Amino acid sequence: MTLTIRDIRPDEFDALGQLLVQVYAGLEGFPSPQEQPRYYEMLARIGEFTTRKHARVLVAVDEDLLFGGVVYFGDMAEYGSGGMATTLTNASGLRLLGVAPWARGRGLGRKLTEACIGFAREQGRAHVVLHSTEAMRVAWGMYERMGFQRAPDLDFMQSALPVFGFRLELPEA
After folding, report:
1. Residue 43 lies in domain
2. I want to staple 29 with a disulfide (CB 3.0 to 4.6 A). Which of 73, 107, 135, 158 is the partner?
3. 0.90 exceeded by the pTM?
4. Residue 42: CB partners within 8 Å, gap ≥ 6?
5. CATH code where residue 141 lies
6. Is 134 exposed, middle or buried (0-12, 13-18, 19+ CB in 10 A)?
7. Contacting residues for 83 by C-beta, under 8 A, at least 6 apart
8. How does pLDDT run across 92-135, given as a tens digit for each residue?
9. Nearest CA among 171, 164, 124, 123 for reference residue 147
């Protein structure tokens, strides 16, 4: 496998959107598309994040096979979550990480996260922020192994769903 992490192409917007809807709808304990239709509409239209200032949608691909993706925010004002995360300065964030069920266990989520951390370092950011839910406990372990720490000050409620903040402090270069 020759995996590449790169910016999404417009012809991949729909495929990544469909993949993310499948991934999130398949999470046990995560709200269904019927319970949170606006959230799933956002996932389906993932390509729209490419129009936000300082945002990038990254994909993990092998030739033309799409394995997963993530959205990187170089400016937290564009992050779009609840809570206080959007008010942070000198921070970047990542959201909506998803890897195809058939491609899990290959380190793709880690590679996508590392790419976002690399962009944050290039921009001289002090930390990287992300959010997760109880249904995403497997990802929590990965984030913690990568150095992210729980940040209760970034927690918020999305309707009735508790959303938990994480922060990775980046040492000065």
Report:
1. 4-169
2. 135
3. yes
4. none
5. 3.40.630.30
6. middle
7. 154, 155, 156, 163, 165
8. 999 999 999 988 888 899 999 999 999 999 999 999 999 999 99
9. 171
